[in-house]
Amino acid sequence: MTEDERQLTFDLFVAYFAGFTGDVAIEPEYLCAAHDLTERSWPSRRIENGEPLWQITDEGLAALHLNALTRSEPTDLN
Q1: Is the model's pLDDT at 77 over the cut of 60?
Q2: CA dihedral sign, ordered 64, 69, 72, 76
Q3: Average pLDDT of span 36-59
Q4: Which pLDDT tens digit goes with each residue over 8-41?
Q5: Could you write out the three-class secondary structure of the chain?
Q6: Are the beta carbons of 41 and 35 closer than 8 angstroms?
Q7: What is the distance between the alpha carbons of residues 27 and 46, in angstroms, rounded to a whole number?
Q8: C-beta separation of 4 from 29 below 8 A
Q9: Are 34 and 5 in contact (CB under 8 A)?
């Protein structure tokens, strides 16, 4: 996962848990990362008024939760 993909996933995750009910317009520099993540079904995309909007999917949330369970750094075991 690239740094841009991590940042975008974090932004979508925060928007989801902040109770944000709509989709998120992302910064242009993250569009490539957003398309790459969409191929993995982590965010969904829709177009509104000609602008792409993104939202984290259930698959993306599950992947984040599974990744948190499989961390292997010694500091993660505390």
Answers
A1: no
A2: positive
A3: 89
A4: 888 888 888 887 656 788 888 999 999 999 998 9
A5: CCHHHHHHHHHHHHHHHCCCCCCECCCHHHHHHHHHHHHCCCEEEEEECCEEEEEECHHHHHHHHHHHHCCCCHHHHC
A6: no
A7: 15
A8: yes
A9: no
Residue 44 phi/psi, 5° resolution?
A: -110, 160
Instruction: Supply 33's token pair.
Output: 């990362």
Residue ranges of the domains in the chain? 3-56
CB 57 within 8 A of CB 41: yes
Q: Does the structure show a pLDDT above 70 at 50?
A: yes
